[in-house]
Amino acid sequence: MGIRLPMRPVGTANWKRYHSLTMRLKAVLFAVIAVSLIASFAVMRLAPDEPVRVPDLTVTTLQGEPFRIPRLQGKPLLVNFWATSCRNCLEEIPRLIELHRELNPNGFEIIGIAMPYDPPNRVIAVSQAKQIPYPIALDIRGEAARAFGNIRLTPSSFLIAPDGRVIHRQTGELQLGKLRALLADMRAQNGDSRTTLHLWRNDT
């Protein structure tokens, strides 16, 4: 439905009011179109280039230990980019903790990677305050964010299959129902129709 301009009136004074109203309506219409175009361009620029396979990447955990992500091949892995200044990230952490406690004994892994702009002391403080059980890594040089397609928006999560394929990317809070469905599909592809993940290898 388009914007309908008022009918052209008769008389000089009425014509001036008509012309002024018409110009204001046109200005509003052009502004709306411009904002829509800018927003669309921003989304395209901010959306990461989705990798097909897990990058050969090593990050450093808060304990100072190197963590090479491809070494987890043979297990399903969730890579979660987050920031201490991101409210949705902080609200998502308890659900990730619950997911990790439930599925990690059967082979499912999570690694949280803090954004390059996040001060390490704040990342450490949040990790300790929330008692995060899965590894948290720093990405001070931004290498991990670039390797996963120039991550700019948080939270951004990648589900990686045991064979190293990136099978799902979620920008924004995770939809746990969809994540569980994808994990169930992986179990089926590995010939396991039961409710655990024990057929994934636990070797590293």
Report on the architecture of this protein.
A hairpin with a 5-residue loop joins strand 6 and strand 7. Strands 2-1-5-4-3-6-7 form a seven-stranded mixed beta sheet. Helices cover 40% and strands 16% of the residues. The chain folds into two domains: 1-46; 58-189, Glutaredoxin, CATH 3.40.30. The protein has helices at 12-46, 87-103, 120-129, 143-147, 176-189; strands spanning 58-61, 66-68, 77-82, 109-114, 136-138, 156-160, 166-171. The chain is built from five helices and seven strands, in the order H-E-E-E-H-E-H-E-H-E-E-H. The chain has 204 residues and is α/β, with parallel strands linked by helices.
Helix content: 25-40%
Coarse structural class? alpha/beta
The largest sheet is: 7 strands, mixed
Q: In percent terms, what proportion of residues is strand?
A: 15-25%
The end-to-end span amounts to 59 Å
Count of structural domains: 2
Shape type: elongated
Mean pLDDT: 78
The CATH class of the largest domain: Alpha Beta
Element order: H for helix, E for strand: HEEEHEHEHEEH
According to CATH, the homologous superfamily of the largest domain is: Glutaredoxin
CA radius of gyration is 24 Å
Given as residue ranges, the uncertain stretches (5+ residues, pLDDT < 50) are 34-49, 193-204
